[in-house]
């Protein structure tokens, strides 16, 4: 062997992963008591093989997969015991994602993205190398999964019809497989697929295992006999314990026929063994202890032997985070794509703002500036009412929209975070950047209409400062919305609580009640009210030069300069963002 070949041999060997588990027990605490789900089992998922886990519903297949993939960890509400290793080494959920991927039962994908864009996003986030390499991988994956016809169709969801359930499942698989992980775990990958497409998929996974020496493990219900014959290794699980673990094909048939459970000719072995495992039949309930006894006597030692001699080579993970700035870039590009795909949202906002601006402009049309009647308190009060309306309306409008943003994307975010596609920092700030930029134009349009219609101070500097206040106010609203959205996972709850937290701050704006008249025990609230700072900035900006006597700046007890007020709004913006980031980080949990 020359040097290159020997290096390649070592690398290939190091990339072959054997997952082993010993004395694995898992139980959960319920109101009725402790429920044992996995009952002290040993096993091995060898590299270069396809392992299928079968069992009746509720046998513990998904739970076993969730434990091996580190989606289940020890909590106060459960008990988890035993050793789970890869190549003889323990691993964490973080390190798992550097050499393995997991396709869960639920296909959580971004609804407005197309099939190709979804798979490309995963490739961009996890595959190192040039764009050409990534494009080739994506093209290959689309071809292998037979997704060519729908590659440019949006995933779709509750409101938009998109791809079919089977195509969705295959896209989910492509999303994980495109990164060429050293091992892949799949929970019921064939559910929703017709028998032909199920066959194609398992064949593809088999080639992936055999040709690339990858570890492939999945749970499966009702495989056809053609699919059954493709399994290298089969695990049969009944009530959290194995009744068989070993090679597929003739060997499993020999094992069971040796015990008097002969699979009838011309019947599908999978159906036959599933019928043996069903706990709905009385005869199986009677036979189950016998299955376990035979397993302990005939199979257990050989599994132990395989575990002892499993691959112990050092692992060289092949999936690493791309640099943070690249993660940020791809998040930004995707968020823009999502926003462009929902032009209705932007148009609705634009329409709403324009109509509102004209409406307000008509109601407050050309308010007097006090030149002809400086003592007219009603005129000054009308103008203040308008400024107060802006201070609250602009904030609430942007906050409400932003409140829904995180909860509605939560599942996708958790799924991608669990797959370690990106870190929370680029996700959060990538989204924020797009939201801020797209919301930049709206307040400017609003100001251009309303400022001159209402007849506010006829001065360019005052007009520009008015725009600045509106922009900062909208940004603060977005940050407040992020905070409330990160606090709750349910969009409706987040929206409701946002109103509950914000509405009580209205009276502390200085308009409804003069800030100098607030009782001392409650007057501190004005300092956490964004409406107070916005209202003060608007009033200062408008009445810096005025004919009104007394000057409303004094009458309204305005304490801050306009720059100070805007500065405090900026601080609130930062404060909300820090809180939002903290709660988003805290909300991270392992998807099971
Ligand atoms: N958090 C939980 N709380 C209560 N019971 C649970 C919990 N998680 C799992 N179980 C129970 O554990 C058992 C095994 O669940 P699991 O999802 O692993 O079964 P499964 O073999 O994958 O079933 P299926 O084929 O129907 O998906 C079931 O009886 C399930 O109800």
TrEMBL record:
<dbReference type="InterPro" id="IPR003439">
    <property type="entry name" value="ABC_transporter-like_ATP-bd"/>
</dbReference>
<keyword id="KW-1133">Transmembrane helix</keyword>
<feature type="domain" description="ABC transporter">
    <location>
        <begin position="19"/>
        <end position="264"/>
    </location>
</feature>
<dbReference type="Pfam" id="PF19055">
    <property type="entry name" value="ABC2_membrane_7"/>
</dbReference>
<dbReference type="Pfam" id="PF00005">
    <property type="entry name" value="ABC_tran"/>
</dbReference>
<dbReference type="InterPro" id="IPR050352">
    <property type="entry name" value="ABCG_transporters"/>
</dbReference>
<keyword id="KW-0813">Transport</keyword>
<keyword id="KW-0067">ATP-binding</keyword>
<dbReference type="Pfam" id="PF01061">
    <property type="entry name" value="ABC2_membrane"/>
</dbReference>
<dbReference type="InterPro" id="IPR003593">
    <property type="entry name" value="AAA+_ATPase"/>
</dbReference>
<feature type="transmembrane region" description="Helical">
    <location>
        <begin position="460"/>
        <end position="481"/>
    </location>
</feature>
<keyword id="KW-0547">Nucleotide-binding</keyword>
<dbReference type="InterPro" id="IPR043926">
    <property type="entry name" value="ABCG_dom"/>
</dbReference>
<feature type="transmembrane region" description="Helical">
    <location>
        <begin position="428"/>
        <end position="454"/>
    </location>
</feature>
<protein>
    <submittedName>
        <fullName>ABC transporter family protein</fullName>
    </submittedName>
</protein>
<feature type="transmembrane region" description="Helical">
    <location>
        <begin position="565"/>
        <end position="584"/>
    </location>
</feature>
<keyword id="KW-0472">Membrane</keyword>
<dbReference type="GO" id="GO:0005524">
    <property type="term" value="F:ATP binding"/>
</dbReference>
<dbReference type="GO" id="GO:0016887">
    <property type="term" value="F:ATP hydrolysis activity"/>
</dbReference>
<dbReference type="GO" id="GO:0016020">
    <property type="term" value="C:membrane"/>
</dbReference>
<keyword id="KW-0812">Transmembrane</keyword>
<dbReference type="InterPro" id="IPR027417">
    <property type="entry name" value="P-loop_NTPase"/>
</dbReference>
<feature type="transmembrane region" description="Helical">
    <location>
        <begin position="493"/>
        <end position="512"/>
    </location>
</feature>
<dbReference type="GO" id="GO:0140359">
    <property type="term" value="F:ABC-type transporter activity"/>
</dbReference>
<dbReference type="InterPro" id="IPR013525">
    <property type="entry name" value="ABC2_TM"/>
</dbReference>
């Amino acid at each position: 062997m020359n040097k290159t070949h020997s290096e390649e041999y070592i690398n290939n060997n190091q990339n072959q992963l054997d997952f082993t588990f010993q004395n694995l027990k898992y139980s959960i605490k319920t109101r009725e008591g402790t429920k044992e789900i996995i009952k002290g089992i040993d096993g091995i998922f060898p590299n270069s093989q396809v392992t299928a886990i079968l069992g009746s519903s509720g046998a513990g297949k998904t739970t076993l997969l969730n434990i091996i993939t580190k989606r289940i960890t020890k909590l106060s509400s459960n008990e988890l015991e035993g050793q789970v290793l890869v190549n003889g080494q323990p691993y964490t959920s973080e390190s798992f994602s550097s050499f393995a991927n997991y396709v869960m039962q639920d296909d959580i994908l971004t609804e407005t993205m197309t099939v190709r864009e979804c798979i490309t996003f995963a490739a961009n986030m996890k595959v190192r190398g040039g764009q050409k390499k990534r494009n080739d991988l994506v093209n290959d994956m689309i071809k292998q999964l037979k997704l060519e016809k729908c590659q440019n169709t949006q995933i779709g969801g509750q409101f938009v019809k998109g791809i079919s359930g089977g195509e969705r499942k295959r896209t989910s698989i492509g999303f994980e497989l495109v990164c060429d992980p050293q091992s892949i775990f799949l929970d019921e990958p064939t559910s929703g697929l017709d028998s032909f497409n199920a066959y194609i998929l398992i064949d593809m996974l088999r080639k992936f295992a055999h040709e690339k020496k990858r570890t492939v493990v999945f749970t499966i219900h009702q495989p056809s006999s053609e699919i059954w014959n493709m399994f290298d290794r089969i695990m049969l699980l009944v009530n959290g314990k194995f009744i068989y673990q070993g090679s597929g094909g003739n060997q499993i048939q020999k094992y069971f026929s040796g015990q008097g459970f002969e699979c009838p000719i011309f019947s599908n072995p999978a159906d036959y063994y599933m019928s043996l495992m069903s706990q709905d039949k009385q005869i199986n309930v009677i036979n189950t202890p016998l299955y376990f006894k035979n397993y302990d006597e005939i199979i257990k030692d050989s599994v132990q032997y395989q575990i002892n001699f499993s691959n112990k080579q050092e692992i060289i993970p092949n999936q690493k985070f791309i640099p943070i700035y690249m993660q940020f870039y791809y998040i930004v590009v995707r968020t823009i794509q999502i926003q462009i795909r929902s032009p209705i949202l932007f148009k609705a906002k634009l329409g709403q703002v324009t109509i509102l601006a004209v409406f307000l402009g008509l109601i407050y049309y050309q308010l007097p500036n006090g030149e002809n009647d400086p003592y007219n308190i009603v005129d000054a009060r009308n103008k203040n009412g308008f400024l107060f309306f802006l201070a609250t309306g602009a904030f609430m409008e942007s906050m409400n929209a932003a409140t829904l943003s995180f909860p509605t994307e939560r599942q996708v975010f958790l799924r991608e975070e669990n797959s370690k596609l990106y870190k929370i920092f680029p996700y959060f700030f990538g989204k924020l950047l797009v939201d801020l930029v797209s919301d930049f134009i709206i307040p400017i349009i609003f100001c251009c209409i309303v400022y001159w219609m209402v007849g506010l101070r006829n001065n360019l500097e005052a007009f520009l400062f008015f725009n600045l206040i509106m922009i900062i106010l909208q940004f603060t609203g977005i940050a407040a919305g992020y905070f409330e959205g990160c606090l709750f996972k349910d969009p409706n709850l987040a929206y409701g609580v946002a109103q509950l937290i914000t509405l009580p701050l209205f009276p502390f704006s200085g308009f409804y009640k003069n800030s100098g008249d607030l009782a001392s025990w409650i007057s501190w609230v004005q300092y956490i009210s964004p409406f107070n700072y916005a209202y003060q900035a608007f009033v200062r900006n408008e009445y810096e030069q005025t004919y009104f006597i007394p000057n409303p700046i004094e009458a309204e007890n305005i304490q801050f300069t306009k720059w100070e007020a805007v500065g405090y709004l900026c601080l609130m913006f930062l404060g909300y963002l820090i809180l939002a980031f903290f709660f988003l980080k805290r909300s991270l949990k392992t998807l099971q």
